[in-house]
Specification:
Layout (H helix, E strand, L loop, with lengths): L6 E12 L7 E12 L3 E5 L6 H8 L7 E6 L2 E2 L5 H11 E5 L10 H10 L5 H14 L15 H13 L5 E5 L7 H17 L3 E5 L3 H4 L4 E6 L2 E7 L5 H16 L1
Parallel strand pairs: 3-8, 3-9, 6-7, 7-8
Antiparallel strand pairs: 1-2, 1-4, 4-5, 9-10
Helix pairs in contact: 3-4, 3-5, 5-6
Bound molecules: adenosine-5'-triphosphate (ATP) and magnesium ion.
Amino acid sequence: MSSQKDIILEARHLTKSFGLYRTNRHDVIKGIDLKIYSGEFVCIMGPSGSGKTTLLNLLSTIDAPTTGSVIINNISVGKLGLIGLADFRHEHLGFIFQDFYLNERLSVFKNIATPLLVNNVDKEEIRHRVQDIAYLLHIEDQLDKMADQCSRGQKQRIAVARALITNPKLIVADEPTGNLDQKNAHELLKILQKLNKRLNLTILLVTHDLLVASYSSRFFYLKDGQITTEFERGELSQLDYLHRIRDCFEDEES
Ligand SMILES: Nc1ncnc2c1ncn2[C@@H]1O[C@H](COP(=O)(O)OP(=O)(O)OP(=O)(O)O)[C@@H](O)[C@H]1O
Ligand SMILES: [Mg+2]
C-alpha cells in the first residue's frame, strides 16, 4: 500500500560509531535501511541507550553517519556543505524537542515568528502566518504573553507552532511529550495527528511511552542499534494498535 506513495526520507545502510580509537570505539547504529513515505506518522521506540536519539539525529541531518546515506525529498543530504545543510534544514524540516527551547524573554508571537525573521518575510505576511498556525494549535489567545508566563502544555504547542511556521513537510520530534503531563501529552498528540492528516505532514517521533506510540501510523522498535520489529497500524483501532505495540514490547524485552 505505502509503496505507491512518495518516499520523503530514505536511509541506506546507516551506521554511526563514536570514539576515535579501537579501545573506545562504540558502534551505536549498526546498519539501518528504511523508507518513510509522505504523510506517515512514524514512531521509534526502544530501550534507553539503544540509539534512538542518535538515529533521529542522523535521519534529520543534525549529525552525519559514519557510513551510509540519508536522502530527504530526493536530496542526498551528505553532499550538502555546512551552509547548504543549514538552508536545507530551514526549508525542509521542523524540530520539536523534549525541552521546548523557547526564548522565555520573548513574546509567544516572536517565538513562533523567529524562523521567518531570518528570511526577510513581509511583516504582514508573518502576522497572518503566526495567527493561522497559532489557531491550529489552540494558542491564538496567547500571542501577546511572554513565553515564560505560559504553561508547559502551551510552551510545547508554541514550540510546535515555531517548527511548523516555515511549512516543512517533515517534523522530527525527540520525546516531545517527555515534559508534559498526560492531559497535555494527549492534547499535543491529537493536534499532531490532525496536522498529519490535514496537512499531509510527515512526522517522525521518538518516545518511551506506549500510549504516545499508539497515535502513530507505523512503528519501529530499535534494539542495540538495529531495527528488530516494524509494523503498520493499518486498519487497527487505536486500542488494538496499542495492544500490538505492548505485545511487541513484551516479546522484545523478554
Ligand atoms: N556524542 C556521543 N559520543 C559518544 N557516545 C555517544 C554520543 N551520543 C550518544 N552516544 C552513546 O550512544 C548510545 C545511544 O545513545 P542515544 O542517546 O542515541 O540513546 P537513546 O536510545 O536515545 O536513549 P534514551 O532513551 O535514554 O534517550 C549511548 O550508549 C550513548 O552513550
Ligand atoms: Mg534519546
